[in-house]
Amino acid sequence: MVLMLAAVALLQGAVAQVAPVAQQDTTKPSTTDIVPTKPKIDCSVTWSETWTKCSPLGTQTRRYTVEVYPTRAGKQCPPPETRNCAYPGPQTVMVDASLGTWGTRDCPMRRGPAKERKLLSTAYTGESHESFPVSAMCQYEPLKVTVGDVVVFKKSSASDDVFMLPSQWHYAVCNFTDGGSALPADASSTATEIRYTIRSEDKDKRLYLASSRAGACSKGQRILISVDDFKQGTLAEALELLEKKVYLTEEGAANMIERIWCFEDHCPTPALGFYEGNLQWAKERCVADAYSLLGFVYRKKPKPEIRRAESYYRKAIELVPTHCEATSYMGELYIQINDFEQASSSLLRLQSLTASEKTAACTTSLAALEAAWKTRGWCPPPANTKTPCVQSAAYATMASLGAAMISALFSAVVAMAI
Q1: Is residue 320 part of a domain?
Q2: Phi/psi class of residue 174: alpha, beta or left (left: φ > 0; alpha: ψ in -120 to 50)?
């Protein structure tokens, strides 16, 4: 009887390999697989003495530096502190805090921005954040403004412009090829002067601005402008936006992309909250997680950008070869563009990773990709056909063999009983 039950289980396992599974949109790391339960530790902070500029709402905020990070069981870090203030009205802010001259700068002591980039402690919403110090790269002094203020850029060259870069990383390395757009100048701008009124949609953001004129950015023609209470992004926030499926609208996708870049800028600390203070995991996965999520959004948004999505998935996997989520997402991308060969390769790789890594994240990622195969009407490896599993020769063969095994074992059991 035991042998017969084993044969039944074997057949059920084979059928389960090819039976339809509910489709899953997303996967994310399982923190229980990554970080063991930790004792109760409360958050401890030191509040900044600097407040933001008074906003049109008559409020200003301040943040803090975390001295002790909490565990999940402990008291979490507080939100930013807010107080009332007297709003002085819109102000005109010159980009150089003087005449408004917008041009390259003399920075003989500057160092390479990409190598000297500092990490921030920004794993919690109220935690303070730095701007790049002028000594670390050639740039204008950062500005703090509020909604309604007008920033003035007086061109030093007729070909000068003001370009909005998507992240601090793009700003640091002067990369104008990966997103971003020209600053939408006010109608009052002239041929020699660019004026920009800080808008309501800029609130609580940081603007990464530079001239796209050849060589100008690296020679210091760039500036960071913080609007009100700029909030640093975190991995946990990005995953929450993903679960809410904000990427299903172009506006939501653009916001999510911005928030992902906002935490990628300062990895690994923005991932510490999600990984419960596990610095090793945050260091290993933070940037790769950002690239994986960027690929997902570019693939899923209403106007997909497939090649850009693929490039981000590849970056994630290059950084973390065992990144099951990125591998699964890339496999879904190849299904989306009907590339059966690449889809097969991705799935076989993910099956191997799942067997070797033995994490819930890999198991969930594999289930999601196999579900995507079946939704597409393909049967995943080992059958690996472009026909539904229930119609495949592999399924018929497994079912036939299973039935034959049960019949043979049942006969043997009966004979033994007699």
Answers
A1: yes
A2: left
Distance spanning both ends of the chain, measured CA to CA: 13
What are 235's two structure tokens? 């991995």
Q: In which band, very low, low, confident or very high, does the pLDDT at 109 lie, cut at 50, 70 and 90?
A: very low
Q: What is the pLDDT of residues 207-230, one digit of tens each?
A: 999 999 999 999 999 999 989 887
Same domain, 359 and 339: yes
* Domain finish residue from 227, 249, 269: 227
**Structural domain contains residue 138:** yes
Identify whether residues 317 and 182 lie together within a single domain: no
pTM above 0.70, yes or no: no
Q: Which two tokens stand for residue 142?
A: 């950062």
pLDDT by residue (tens digit) across 292-303?
999 999 999 999
| 368, 256: one domain | yes
Query: 333 with 265, same domain?
Result: yes
**Full residue range of the structural domain in which residue 339 is found:** 2-50+233-376
Cβ–Cβ < 8 Å for 96, 62: no
Amino acid letter at 115?
K
Task: Identify the CA nearest to 346 among candidates 365, 331, 324.
Answer: 331
Sign of CA dihedral 302, 307, 308, 314: positive
